[in-house]
Amino acid sequence: MHGQTSTCPHLRVLPNLVAVCTAAVCVLVAEQKDQERLNSLNQTAEETANNLSCYLSVLKKIQILPVIEQIGTDPRCEVHQMVLGTRDDKEGWLSVLCPSSLACVDEGSAWASILQMLISCCCKRKKFLGMLVKSLGACMLLALRGNVTAQDVLCLMLEWKLIEGSDQSLQVVTTLQSTPTGKRRYQALSDRQMHLRELQQKGGPRKLTLPSRSTDADVNRMLSSGSFGNLECLSLAFTRVTSACAEQLIKLPTLRYLNLWATQFGDVGLQLISEHLHKLQVLNLCETPVTDKGLEALAAIKSLRKLNLNSTSLSVETFETLKEMLPSLLEVDVRYTDAW
């Protein structure tokens, strides 16, 4: 069902199954009322009851909540993403299970389990957490009850400045400090922010090149060793870094030039830096494993002027989209791609 050439059917199957059964129940009830009003019953009460029982038994059998939870906690991205809305402005099953939803019947247990999978996998992103701010009350409720996933989400919202207003931020901090686990997480956040302030202090080099064979751990160690508030140019070309180092790169808001040539930096990292490095002007992704999935996110970096996508999986469609969405783009290398 989830091979490379097929898409996950759950997004359609589950709503369709529910819709067919509930619609059938509505039709049966409406027909019964019409027949009673016209005094022309075509079915006996027993026949109507049997038909109703048939559809209601299907609804009972599929047990919607555990089905959605199973989908949402599946380790495969193409499966658990099916609980999200089909578009940014559309609500998905995750919204239905939210503790603040009238449809929630389990105090948010399934919602928290699914949220844990999403945050630990592909949704630890500013865009997703920004949409989750609408469920801030639900996150605070679960965090107050000791749910560590909700506490982690609140810390990320604070760290990435997604919560508007000092009063609301203060409420979140108070909530975190109300439990031992929340207090530990908030302390860790405070320590990270103190280090971040030191890291972003004016000073340090304007250009930095890491040796080939450097790893994600080396990037972490390097950026933990002093102030890099002046850093504008960073070259990681021909190193062994992966998308994991993006967590460190987003701490460098002054970065204007980033060279990732011949690294294993992929879509996940590209999506993350696209949400945070809004001053980036030159980006080299030559011979990296990035695909359209990550490249589409570059449309958010409006300051981009030069882009090297040589020998990547860039498609013609994504190339045209980037040209349209990036008005400052002056130079793009698309050699050895489908867009060449």
Task: Give short descriptive properties of this protein.
340 residues, mainly alpha, Leucine-rich repeat, LRR (right-handed beta-alpha superhelix), 6-stranded parallel sheet, 6 strands
User: How would you spell out the order of helices and strands?
Assistant: HHHHHHHHHHHEHEHEHEHEHE
How many β-strands, per DSSP? 6
Any idea what the CATH superfamily of the domain at 207-333 is called?
Answer: Ribonuclease Inhibitor
Fold-level CATH name of the domain at 207-333: Leucine-rich repeat, LRR (right-handed beta-alpha superhelix)
Broad structural category? mainly alpha
Please state roughly what percent of the residues sit in beta strands, choosing from under 5%, 5-15%, 15-25%, 25-35%, 35-45% or over 45%: 5-15%
Span between N and C termini?
Answer: 34 Å
Strand line-up of the largest beta sheet:
1-2-3-4-5-6
Low-confidence stretches: none
Rg to the nearest angstrom? Answer: 25 Å
Biggest sheet statistics = 6 strands, parallel
Query: What would the principal axes of the Cα set say about the shape?
Result: globular
CATH architecture of the domain at 207-333: Alpha-Beta Horseshoe
Helix content: 40-55%
How many distinct helices?
16
Mean pLDDT: 89
For the record, what CATH class of the domain at 207-333 applies?
A: Alpha Beta
